Amino acid sequence: MRAIRVRIGLFFVAVIALVAGTVRLPSQGPALHWYKGNLHSHTINSDGDSAPDAVTRWYKERRYHFLALTDHNYFTDPQGLDAFLGAKDRFLLITGEEVTSHYGDAPVHVNAFRLQQTIEPFFGEDILSTLQGNVDAIQAAGAVPSLNHPQDAWAIDAATLVRVRNLGLFEVYNSHPDTNNEWGLEEMWDSALTAGRKLYGIAVDDAHEFKQFGPGRSNPGGGWVEVLAPELSEQAILAAVGRGEFYASTGVKLEAMRRGAGQLRVKIKQESDRQYRTVFVGKAGRVLARETGVEVSYRLQPGDGYVRATITDSNGRKAWVQPVFPVPGS
Ligand SMILES: [Zn+2]
Ligand SMILES: [Zn+2]
């Protein structure tokens, strides 16, 4: 009788843990958790209006789990701040810099993550060589490159993005008010994916202003990523981002996400009475399916190329789920 009670007790513990989303069976690998973070922000070490500790506190106090301070051509070393404000599995500063170059009037800004010192910008002889040179400089430093606001001053077009090598991340959303962010970026993404690039899209706020808030200001909180990782460490977060195990968001939240084996499945967190539309997109930007509701999925068909999802709620908030590619040999 006692053994049965213990078994029943363990069963309910397991059910509660599964519902809480923190447990996986041993055969499925380590338990994964959602971590919310912003990978693009500025301090007074470049053109931000606040000191690194004030910027960090803004995010920590709003329950972000991680933040990258990405000053222009300056490595704001977060080590001391992380020792002071970091907290195991609760808050982490990721190393970052916005490697800031240009060709003529066209800005070429590439974020670098996981670095130890300032990476100097590269200046090329055209827009593509400038972008490629900065990506290469970041890779040579052992850091992770991410292309920022491609359409700021209409600097980077799809034809350029398609030709860049060794770039795995770009900003599909940047809430800075002057980055021409609201159209064309998904089309650029599809051009790159269709050309065989394995490119994932992040959302960021690129915040500069933490003292005054209002329309037209580059305030924090407009875009972020939610990463599914086994622990809150720079290595685990960047590895998960590199595998596409995250979504970019401006307000839509997911409860569950499953990418793999040629299938994409998500469960959207229902908030108040909002409604949700999901568009599954494949090769050349073709709409593969449109769904409503909070539990949606798509299985790749021959000729789809890949499948990614854009979710929009009835208040205009979005989430972008990263592309899934066909299983090799299938
Ligand atoms: Zn920039
Ligand atoms: Zn920036």
Describe the structure.
- The structure is a single chain.
- The chain folds into three domains: 1-30, no CATH class; 32-250, TIM Barrel (Alpha-Beta Barrel); 254-330, Immunoglobulin-like (Sandwich), CATH 2.60.40.
- The protein is 23% helix and 29% strand.
- It has seven helices and 17 strands.
- The longest helix is centred in the N-terminal third of the chain and has 19 residues, at 2-20.
- The N and C termini lie far apart (51 Å).
- The chain binds zinc ion (2 copies).
- One zinc ion is lined by residues 40, 42, 98, 206.
Specify Rg, calculated over alpha carbons: 20 Å
Instruction: Just name the CATH architecture of the largest domain.
Output: Alpha-Beta Barrel
Low-confidence stretches: 1-26
Describe the main β-sheet briefly: 9 strands, mixed
In total, the number of strands is 17
